[in-house]
């Protein structure tokens, strides 16, 4: 789970608590929605976000315009077809979504008019959803599951492309340093293997405590029992007074039965 204290530690210097709290809530909501729900997935995702946004300081690209930014204008691969599109659809949000076409496609998936109102991407709640959607649309959970530092190059290339001269992802050393920084904290946490569903259908990650949940105690013993009973992805199954699913990432979804 991403906390305000974690973001104050890893984000930009002297991040105000209110800012950290807003981003923590937004990022956790997006992480839940897109199943970025293990320390490894969170570490890769958060490392890329922190790099792209300068530790969550820049929710909007600093505009010069630089020569590279002037090159946004008229770029077909960004969908910038109208005069002024380069600046209007500058990088925004923690993943720095850029270009009319990318705003449009993200907005369509999220049910938001990002093409008509690109400034929405600067809001923590919407910017975090865009970052989660971007991650999900490129299948990066599965790449994160494949490893730690060894996957930083592949994930970085998917997020920001490769340098045409070197063939390496842009700013790879900095991205690797960010991953090491986040992983040093999140990698020490217990793997979040349970997602809980309340009666209204809302999902939330387990808080890591051995709490009773509809007649069973969440914790290592339950996890071992579920691993034994349901070794492959599928469901739902009834386990006591719970409905149980096993995801492909080996996490379990638990819903209370009446």
TrEMBL record:
Single annotated GO MF: chitinase activity
> Would you kindly state one Gene Ontology biological process term found in this protein's UniProt entry?
chitin catabolic process
The record ties this protein, via InterPro entries, to: Cell_Wall_Dynamics_Protein, Glyco_hydro_19_cat, Lysozyme-like_dom_sf
Ranges for domain Glycoside hydrolase family 19 catalytic come to 84-122
List the keywords (alphabetical).
Hydrolase, Plasmid
SUPFAM superfamilies, per database record: Lysozyme-like (SSF53955)
Source species, domain of life: Bacteria
Report what the protein is called. Answer: Glycoside hydrolase, family 19
């Amino acid at each position: 789970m991403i906390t305000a204290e974690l973001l104050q530690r890893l984000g930009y210097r002297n991040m105000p608590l209110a800012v950290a709290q807003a981003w923590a809530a937004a990022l956790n909501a997006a992480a839940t929605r897109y199943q970025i729900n293990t320390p490894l997935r969170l570490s890769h995702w958060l490392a890329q976000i922190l790099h792209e946004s300068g530790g969550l300081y820049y929710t909007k690209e600093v505009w010069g315009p630089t020569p590279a930014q002037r090159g946004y204008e008229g770029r077909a691969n960004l969908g910038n077809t109208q005069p002024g599109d380069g600046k209007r659809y500058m990088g925004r949000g923690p993943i720095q979504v850029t270009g009319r076409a990318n705003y449009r496609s993200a907005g369509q998936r999220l049910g938001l008019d990002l093409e008509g109102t690109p400034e929405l991407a600067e809001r923590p709640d919407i910017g975090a959803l865009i970052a989660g959607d971007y991650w999900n649309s490129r299948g990066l959970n599965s790449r994160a599951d494949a490893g730690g530092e060894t996957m930083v190059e592949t994930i970085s290339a998917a997020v920001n492309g490769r340098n045409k001269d070197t063939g390496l992802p842009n700013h790879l050393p900095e991205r690797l340093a960010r991953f090491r920084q986040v992983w040093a904290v999140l990698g020490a946490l217990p793997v979040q293997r349970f997602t809980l569903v309340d009666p209204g259908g809302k999902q939330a990650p387990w808080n890591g405590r051995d709490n009773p949940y509809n007649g069973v105690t969440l914790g290592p013993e339950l996890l071992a029992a579920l691993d034994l009973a349901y070794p492959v992805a599928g469901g739902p199954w009834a386990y006591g007074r719970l409905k149980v699913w096993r995801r492909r990432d080996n996490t379990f979804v638990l819903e209370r039965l009446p």
